[in-house]
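ok new one. same drill as before - C-alpha cells go in, u give me an amino acid for every spot. 503 of them this time. try not to just spam alanines like last time pls lmao
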C-alpha cells in the first residue's frame, strides 16, 4: 500500500564544550475523543458552554454515583488504534489514579495504567519529500480529563469549572524515537492529521483538544543506537517532562531550551534530575514544577466501579471496515495515479477535505493541471481571505469546469485566471461566463494573422531590430496578446510572428 521509499533524517546534534550531544524525545499526546458525551456520563462535551452546565452527578463526584462506560468512546479509541497500525487489546481495564485537585472532585482520575485498550503501533513522521522517521507508539489508553481551575478572575478567590471533568481523552504515548525539535512538531502534525482523517479527535490545539507532554533527554552520539539495539533505557540520559504544550512553535522552543539546559548542567559536572517542568513562552524557558512522581505515588488500583472491558474481534473488524484511506496511502496513490510530485501530494492530502476536493476536480480531467490549480490558485486565494477549503466560494465542479475549458483549448491559462477570479467573486457556470463575456480563445488564424500584421505595420523600427535580434520577437507576441485582450492562442501567435518576421 505504502510504496514511497524514504530516508531517515539525521538527529539534532548540539555541540557542547565537551563534545557533541544528541536529543532524545518521547511524547505523550492527550487527544480529546470526538464524542458528544463524556467517557462515563451522559453530560455534553460542548466547548464554550456556560461554566458548570455540562456536569452530571458522577462528574461532580457526588457520593454513590456510578460511572457508566460510553461505548462510542471505546469505538473511537479502537478506530484510532487501527489507524495507527496498532495492536487492539480485546481485554483492557480501568484503574484509579489517586490525587487531589479542586478540578477533580472524585479525588481520583479513571485511567488505564496496567491494561490499556491499545498496544504498540507506529506513525511515519514526514520531514519533507523522501525523508521520514518511523516513530513507535507504545500504547494508547483512555482516561478522564480534569476540569479547569480559574485563578485570575478575582483577587481573593479561585473558581472551578467542571465542564471538562470526565471528558474522554486518549493518551497516545510514543517511544523515545523522536530526535529533534522539528521532528517533535512534525510528529504532532502527522498524528493530528491521522486523527482528523479518522474523525476520532478534532485536533483543535487552541481549545486544548490536543496537547502534548514532551519528554526530553540528551545523550552522546552512539548511545541512542545502543538503546535501540537493547531497548535498555540506561543507555539514554535522564529525561525531564515538559507538561501541557499546545502549540507547535512552543513545543520546538521548549525542547531546544530544555536540551541546552541539560547539556549545560551535565558539562558543568552536574546531573539531570527527573522532574516535571513547565514552559514559559514569555521568557522562553522551562522551570521546575514538581519532582517526577512514580506510578506508586498515585496508588493506582483497578477501579471497583467498572468491570474489565472485554470487546469482541468481530466488533473490531467492523470498525476496521469503516477506516478511511489514510494520509500515507492517499499520498502514495496521488503520486502514482496523478503523476504529481510527493510535495504536491503532501499538500493536497494535508487534510481529508482538501484531498476529496482535489479528487472531485481531477475526476476525468488532467490530474497535474488540477493539482496545479488547486494548490497555486485556489489555496493561494483562500489563504488571502483566511478561508478554508470547506467554505471555498469556488466549488470543485466549478474549478473542474475551468480546467476543462483550459484543456479543450477554449481559454488560455491567462484568461483562466481572470475567469477563476470572476467565479470566485461572482459565482456562476464557467462555460457560460466564457460564452457570454466573449472570453473564448481566438484560435482562428485569420483573426490572429490580422492582429500580427497590424502590429508589424505599426512598428517598422521594431521589425528591423527583431530581424537583427530574434529574441525581440517576444515583444511582438506581447503586443498581439494585448491587442486581442489575451484571447489569442499563444502558440499560434508565436508561430505567426516568427513566420511574418522571417525568423
Ligand atoms: P510517565 O507516564 O510516568 O511519564 P512513561 O513510561 O509512560 O512515563 O513514559 C513517558 C514518555 O517518556 C514516553 O513517551 C517515553 O517515550 C518517554 N521517554 C522515556 N525515556 C525517555 C528518555 N530517556 N528520553 C526522552 N524521552 C523518554
Ligand atoms: Mg508522563
Amino acid at each position: 500500500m505504502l510504496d514511497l521509499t524514504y530516508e531517515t533524517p539525521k538527529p539534532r546534534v548540539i555541540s557542547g564544550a565537551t563534545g557533541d550531544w544528541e536529543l532524545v524525545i518521547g511524547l505523550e499526546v492527550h487527544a480529546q475523543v470526538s464524542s458528544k458525551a463524556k467517557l462515563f456520563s451522559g453530560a455534553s462535551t460542548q466547548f464554550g458552554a456556560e461554566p458548570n452546565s455540562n456536569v452530571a452527578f458522577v462528574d461532580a463526584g457526588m457520593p454513590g454515583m456510578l460511572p457508566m462506560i460510553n461505548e462510542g468512546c471505546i469505538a473511537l479509541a479502537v478506530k484510532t488504534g487501527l489507524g495507527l497500525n496498532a495492536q487492539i487489546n480485546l481485554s483492557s481495564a480501568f484503574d484509579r489514579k489517586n490525587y487531589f485537585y479542586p478540578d477533580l472532585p472524585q479525588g481520583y482520575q479513571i485511567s488505564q495504567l496496567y491494561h490499556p485498550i491499545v498496544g504498540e503501533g507506529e506513525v511515519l513522521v514526514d520531514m519533507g519529500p523522501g525523508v521520514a522517521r518511523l516513530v513507535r507508539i507504545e500504547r494508547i489508553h483512555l482516561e478522564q480529563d480534569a476540569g479547569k481551575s480559574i485563578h485570575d478572575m478575582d483577587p481573593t478567590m479561585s473558581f472551578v469549572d467542571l465542564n471538562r471533568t470526565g471528558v474522554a481523552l486518549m493518551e497516545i504515548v510514543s517511544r523515545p524515537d523522536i530526535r529533534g525539535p522539528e521532528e517533535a512538531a512534525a510528529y504532532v502534525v502527522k498524528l493530528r492529521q491521522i486523527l482528523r482523517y479518522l474523525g476520532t479527535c478534532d485536533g483543535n490545539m487552541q481549545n486544548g483538544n490536543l496537547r502534548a507532554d514532551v519528554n526530553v533527554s540528551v545523550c552522546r552520539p552512539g548511545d541512542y543506537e545502543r538503546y535501540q539495539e537493547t531497548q535498555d533505557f540506561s543507555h539514554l540520559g535522564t529525561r525531564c517532562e515538559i507538561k501541557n504544550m499546545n502549540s507547535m512553535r512552543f513545543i520546538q522552543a521548549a525542547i531546544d531550551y530544555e536540551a541546552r539546559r541539560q547539556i549545560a548542567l551535565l558539562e558543568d559536572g552536574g546531573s539531570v534530575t527527573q522532574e516535571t517542568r513547565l514552559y514559559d513562552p514569555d521568557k522562553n524557558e522551562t522551570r521546575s514544577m514538581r519532582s517526577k512522581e512514580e506510578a506508586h505515588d498515585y496508588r493506582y488500583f483497578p477501579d471497583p466501579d467498572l468491570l474489565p472491558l472485554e470487546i469482541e474481534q468481530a466488533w473490531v473488524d467492523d470498525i476496521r471496515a469503516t477506516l478511511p484511506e489514510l494520509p500515507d496511502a492517499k499520498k502514495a496513490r496521488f503520486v502514482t495515479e496523478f503523476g504529481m510530485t510527493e510535495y504536491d501530494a503532501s499538500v493536497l492530502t494535508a487534510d481529508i477535505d482538501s484531498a476529496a476536493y482535489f479528487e472531485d476536480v481531477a475526476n476525468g480531467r488532467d490530474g497535474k493541471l488540477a493539482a496545479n490549480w488547486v494548490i497555486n490558485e485556489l489555496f493561494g486565494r483562500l489563504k488571502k481571505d483566511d478561508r478554508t477549503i470547506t467554505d471555498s466560494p469556488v466549488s470543485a465542479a466549478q474549478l473542474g469546469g475551468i480546467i476543462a475549458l483550459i484543456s479543450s483549448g477554449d481559454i488560455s491559462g491567462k484568461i483562466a485566471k481572470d475567469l477563476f477570479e470572476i467565479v470566485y467573486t461572482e459565482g456562476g457556470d464557467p462555460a457560460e461566463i466564457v460564452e457570454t463575456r466573449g472570453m473564448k480563445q481566438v484560435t482562428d488564424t485569420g483573426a490572429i494573422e490580422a492582429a500580427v500584421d497590424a502590429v508589424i505595420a505599426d512598428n517598422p523600427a521594431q521589425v528591423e531590430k527583431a530581424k537583427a535580434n530574434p529574441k525581440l520577437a517576444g515583444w511582438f507576441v506581447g503586443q498581439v496578446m494585448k491587442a486581442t485582450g489575451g484571447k489569442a492562442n499563444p502558440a499560434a501567435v508565436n508561430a505567426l510572428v516568427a513566420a511574418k518576421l522571417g525568423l
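The two ends are 53 Å apart (CA to CA). and btw The chain has three domains: 24-320, 327-436, 445-501.
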